Amino acid sequence: MARHIRDITVPDQCGRLAVVTGANSGIGFETARRLALAGAEVVLAVRDGAKGEAAAERIRAEGGKKVGTAVLDLASLDSVVSFSDVLHERGRPVDLLVNNAGVMAVPTQQTTKDGFELQFGTNHLGHFALTGRLLPLLRAAAAPRVVTVSSLISRLARLDLSDLNSERRYRPMDCYARSKLANLMFALELDRLSARQRWGVRSLAAHPGLARTNLAHGGPLLGRAPGPFKPGPFKLGTFKPGTFKPGTFNPAALFLSLPGLTQDPVRGALPLLVAATSASVVGGGYYGPDGIGGLTGLPAAARVPRRATALDTAAGLWRCSEQLTGVAFPA
């Protein structure tokens, strides 16, 4: 396909069922909204049911007729099981799964309900388990897709399979970057396995560039006492792996201090929508904005970081993820 994708019209989605995680705000909400307005039945998979229902009402008010919500906490494998069971009980094939939800740059080390480092456990392991449990419903669809959201910061990450939970050292942005590299490697490995095993599922990845969402604010404030938000100092020259330390870098400050180099969630959602609906994309593709550095712009094929193409590491990450979550994909 051509590098630049200028047609960003979402094609008719009538008859398709889409599940979007983290769909109550940001790029998840905009992705769900556009899919619903194109005729899809959309399930907003959200941690907070009240916020999810408020988001669903906003979409319905615009004309999205088939929008529902379901509670999903990706930091809890039990919640993943419960959510998946609801969809299995309905028995409806899932045409599209958008693995979007996440947490970012939590300042102090925290764990999921299952004891995993919060960012790796939520961003990667939660979505890994969800995809595995929904795989039978995906395979039952006519042309199923899984779109997993990564980030530009994955370029700076390096995975250590012996310390996936950052027990030896915790640095907020390093851990976030590793979780987003894991997201990207998962998306690529899922497509390779689907092709080899003939699952019939097309797996793709996307990133939103530098989008202004509450992800930049929520993560850095987790675990801190309530109070006014005070951005920490930031220097572009320190933006390297292993240099992030609590109190010296605040990602929200970065997002808010670069006028003209960020984009709103409507634009940020476009690469996800292209990956989810375009007839031009290919399995194993990675899509993001086409502007300088991939920060802003229209959807285009994105550069895959070299470390994301390491097949041995991807296979090792897959094995570790199956062991940690207890979710085994069919052999």
Any overview of this molecule?
The protein is α/β, with parallel strands linked by helices. Helix content is 39%, strand content 11%. It has 10 helices and 8 strands. The chain has helices at 26-37, 49-62, 77-90, 118-139, 172-197, 215-221, 251-256, 265-268, 270-277, 311-325; strands spanning 17-21, 41-46, 67-71, 96-99, 145-149, 202-206, 286-289, 299-301. The protein has an 8-stranded mixed sheet, sandwiched between helices. Strand 2, helix 2 and strand 3 (67-71) form a beta-alpha-beta unit. Helix 3 packs parallel to helix 4.
Characterize this entry briefly.
By secondary structure, the chain is an alpha/beta fold.
Rg over CA atoms, rounded to whole Å, is 18 Å
In helices, the fraction of residues equals: 25-40%
By helix and strand content, what is the structural category?
alpha/beta
Query: Helix segment count?
Result: 10
Question: Quaternary arrangement of the chains shown?
Answer: single chain
For the biggest β-sheet, the strand order reads 3-2-1-4-5-6-7-8
What is the helix/strand order? EHEHEHEHEHEHHHHEEH
Main sheet record: 8 strands, mixed
State the separation between the terminal residues, measured CA to CA: 31 Å
Number of E-state strands: 8
The unreliable regions are 1-6, 223-249
**What percent strand?**
5-15%
In one word, what is the shape? globular
Q: Can you give the mean pLDDT?
A: 87
